């Protein structure tokens, strides 16, 4: 496996998907802004999309890949194991969706209790969530197909599938003026339809390695028991950032427009998280699991150090850039139509505090993978549980005093708490050791990131007149500023050898 090339392949399609996601969200901001319709839709969209992130962004891999990889050389055994999991998923997901659909008013109240005082917004959120919730079943099965492809080191197709969702939503949004208030209904239907299409799309590629069959007469063996025993802890631990955001959405529902502010802020840092955390964690898991099974300590140590190095190389400069220009970035991306200047400022403030936690969000994904490769989901689970409880405590205690901004603050604090504890346990369990190359590279990454920050701040200052909210060309100037900052960072990184071109061809 080539870490950088495989991560690059995964990241390329992820970036395409996220860029289309930005186009989607820009159009949503134009037509819905940050008002009641937007709040209701974002709750309906947040629920299945959170599950999508939980299942598809490394979580399902964490439980499935180590077990499946150990059987991959025996096609009969791997096929049997995968079909058993597939059957149980189909049955379990069908009944879960059915029960939630029946109990949707209670379910939405639990997710957005703050809507209770607004009957129309609550009823709309219930209706829209009923439409979007079946997406959960289809995207979970699609994630299962993706996990099989990832186990065979086929990352491109799995990372490309989410593009379908954004294409469909953009297609609907292009008719936003015609649809008016009906727009939120069409968007909700598009969410569910995209889940079906992603499942069909992945099926055509996965059938080379796996033929899905529903077998109601099979026996639940130890391998299947172990998978489901690991699934819930891995969902919770690998998806702790998304769980924290969901918790934040619940609490933010008590403040008007806060759900929307947090949604737009969340969308911006997610592209870096997808590359610096999710992509790296997903790519290294199959190979790391094999090396763990074969007890190849040198390979294990090399992969873990390089994964950590690459994660910090990507996340630290991104965090600095977001801290410097959080409001300008939000305004440039979403500051049009119904998304007014106040909305841009509030979302920008939320993004500022999320940015402080960005390296931690990425480290959680990477550190958790080190445990998952060893079939250890308990330690990440208990640490994640403590992290979520800390997040809830801070958010509830200080919400009245601070308002919605306590959500990103609490998320960041709890995420750093999570990342540090994961690292401590890795060291205590002797599962990770720094090599000298990493320590030297880390210092150089910090130097390159700080210099980039100084340069980027200067560029933002130069473009100040073109980046104010009322400018029609602010997005062009912001893209230009980001490109200049990125080029400067890469140049400095190469000059001080924080990154070497020889790393590109390094195999693990």
Overview of this protein structure:
By secondary structure, this protein is mainly alpha-helical. The protein has one domain. The chain is 80% helix and 0% strand. The chain is built from 21 helices and no strands. Helix 6 runs parallel beside helix 11. The longest helix is centred in the middle third of the chain and has 36 residues. The mean pLDDT is 83.
Q: Helices, strands, pairings?
A:
Blueprint: H1 3-32, H2 36-56, H3 59-69, H4 75-102, H5 104-111, H6 119-132, H7 135-151, H8 156-160, H9 163-173, H10 176-179, H11 183-206, H12 222-238, H13 240-252, H14 258-293, H15 297-324, H16 326-334, H17 341-372, H18 378-402, H19 406-428, H20 436-462, H21 474-495
Q: Describe the main β-sheet briefly.
A: none
Strand content: under 5%
Helix fraction, binned, reads over 70%
Radius of gyration: 22 Å
**Count of the domains:** 1
Overall structural class, as computed from helix and strand content, comes to mainly alpha
> Which geometry do the CA atoms define?
globular
What's the helix-strand series?
HHHHHHHHHHHHHHHHHHHHH
């Amino acid at each position: 496996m080539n870490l950088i090339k495989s991560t690059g392949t995964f990241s390329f399609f992820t970036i395409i998907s996220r860029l289309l996601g930005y186009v989607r969200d820009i159009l949503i901001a134009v037509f819905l802004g940050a008002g009641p319709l937007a709040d209701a839709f974002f709750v309906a969209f947040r629920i299945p999309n959170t599950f999508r992130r939980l299942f598809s962004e490394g979580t399902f891999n964490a439980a499935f890949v180590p077990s499946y990889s150990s059987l991959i050389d025996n096609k009969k055994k791997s096929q049997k194991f995968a079909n058993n999991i597939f059957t149980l998923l189909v049955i379990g997901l069908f009944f879960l969706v059915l029960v939630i659909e029946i109990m949707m008013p209670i379910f939405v109240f639990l997710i957005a209790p703050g809507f209770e005082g607004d009957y129309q917004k609550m009823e709309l959120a219930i209706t829209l969530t009923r439409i979007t919730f079946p997406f959960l079943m289809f995207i979970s099965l699609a994630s299962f197909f993706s996990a099989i492809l990832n186990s065979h080191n086929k990352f491109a197709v799995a990372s490309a599938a989410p593009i379908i969702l954004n294409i469909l939503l953009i297609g609907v949004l292009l008719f936003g003026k015609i649809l008016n208030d009906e727009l939120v209904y069409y968007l909700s239907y598009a969410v569910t339809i995209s889940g079906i299409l992603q499942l069909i799309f992945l099926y055509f590629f996965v059938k080379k390695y796996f033929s899905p069959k529903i077998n109601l007469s099979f026996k639940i063996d130890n391998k299947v028991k172990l998978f489901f025993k690991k699934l819930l802890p891995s969902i919770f631990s690998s998806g702790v950032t998304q769980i924290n955001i969901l918790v934040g959405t619940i609490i933010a529902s008590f403040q008007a427009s806060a759900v929307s502010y947090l949604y737009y802020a969340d969308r911006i840092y997610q592209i870096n998280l997808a590359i610096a955390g999710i992509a790296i964690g997903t790519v290294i898991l199959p190979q790391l699991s094999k090396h763990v099974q074969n007890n190849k300590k040198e390979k294990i140590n090399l992969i873990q150090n390089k994964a950590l190095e690459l994660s910090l190389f990507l996340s630290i400069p991104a965090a600095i850039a977001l801290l410097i220009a959080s409001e300008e970035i939000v305004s440039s991306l979403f500051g049009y139509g119904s998304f007014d200047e106040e909305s841009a400022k509030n979302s920008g403030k939320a993004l500022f505090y999320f940015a402080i936690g960005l390296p931690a969000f990425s480290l959680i994904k990477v550190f958790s993978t080190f445990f998952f490769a060893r079939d250890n989901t308990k330690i990440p689970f208990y640490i994640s549980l403590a992290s979520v409880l800390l997040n809830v405590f801070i958010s509830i205690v200080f919400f009245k005093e601070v308002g919605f901004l306590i959500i990103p603050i609490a998320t960041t604090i709890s995420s750093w708490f999570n990342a540090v504890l994961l690292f401590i346990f890795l060291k205590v369990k002797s599962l990770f050791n720094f090599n000298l190359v990493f320590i030297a590279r880390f210092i150089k990454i910090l130097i390159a990131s700080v210099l980039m920050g100084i340069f980027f701040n200067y560029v933002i200052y130069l473009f100040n007149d073109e980046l104010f909210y009322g400018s029609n060309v602010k997005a062009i100037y912001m893209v230009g500023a980001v490109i200049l900052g990125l080029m400067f960072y890469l140049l400095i990184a190469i000059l001080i050898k924080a990154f070497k071109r020889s790393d590109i061809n390094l195999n693990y």
